[in-house]
């Protein structure tokens, strides 16, 4: 039975959620049951189409492949505040090669998408593609993440872990690719159709891609970072969709995530001035419904709170005097 209204007495944070999802209450509806949410009234909850599958053992990387500092321990040693977001010509030369490789791996992984293939099989294909190029999967053991890419299906917003679930006709899936090559990271993602999808999903994916393009187009030297989110949010809102607020773009280079953050909604406090030589990702996550999210017990998978679908596109970009150069084209 699906329960849509919270009970008068709510469960404890570590008890099963009242909605019947099987998740702990603190991981599921506790945020939605806040005083602010209660004022808005109960939100609809539906059983999503995605459930966790079996996660296979972590894949190995040949010893000759150079690794980031967290590859063994799972904990980055390099401070995200230590690296400048304006890159030297030497770092930029390496980043161009790494980002181009990331775009190629994304293209290769996407070519295998079809109904019936599991996301774990996509992980194996992607893992091999990184190694073939002499690169390390940036996500592998990053803060303990167990796989070589993120596969986010339907209502999964981001950080979906590849597993035994087979893709179905009508699914949409985001493949999030990051390669560590020549001492730097290249990061990109895109959302794809699996078989024939419904018109609303087609519209969601189209609008999300348009949001990325508008965000990239808003990159202008001397302007604040907030211009990017303003452009993205305006287009999403105009189309009756919402922008996820819990996750953002980020500076990138020799460090996977630097301290620079790129909100995809308008945030007046995002007043860092855009400078030539900056490198960062723009990666809007757009929902058909509300922007709120909840997390699975795996500590990674973020899904829409209302069970409606979400899409994402991402590029790593370099700021130039003319605007933005996309580095992650294949």
List the helices and strands and how they pair.
Elements lengths: L34 H6 L48 H22 L8 H14 L3 E2 L12 E4 L2 E3 L13 E10 L2 E10 L5 H19 L8 H13 L3 E2 L5 E2 L10 E2 L16 E4 L2 E3 L5 E3 L6 E3 L5 E3 L2 E6 L2 E4 L4
Antiparallel strand pairs: 1-4, 2-4, 3-12, 4-5, 6-10, 7-8, 9-14, 10-13, 11-12, 14-15
Task: Using brief descriptors, characterize the structure shown.
single chain, 330 residues, alpha+beta, four-stranded antiparallel β-sheet, three-stranded antiparallel β-sheet, 18% strand
Give a quick rundown of the structure.
With 330 residues, the protein is an alpha+beta fold. It has helices at residues 35-40, 89-110, 119-132, 199-217, 226-238, and strands spanning 136-137, 150-153, 156-158, 172-181, 184-193, 242-243, 249-250, 261-262, 279-282, 285-287, 293-295, 302-304, 310-312, 315-320, 323-326.
Provide structural commentary.
With 330 residues, the protein is α+β, with helices and mostly antiparallel strands. The protein folds into two domains: 47 residues, no CATH class; 238 residues, Creatinase/methionine aminopeptidase superfamily (Creatine Amidinohydrolase), CATH 3.90.230.10. The protein has five helices and 15 strands. Strands 1, 2, 4 and 5 form a four-stranded antiparallel β-sheet that branches. A hairpin with a 6-residue loop joins strand 11 and strand 12. The radius of gyration is 20 Å and the shape is globular. About 4% of the residues have low confidence.
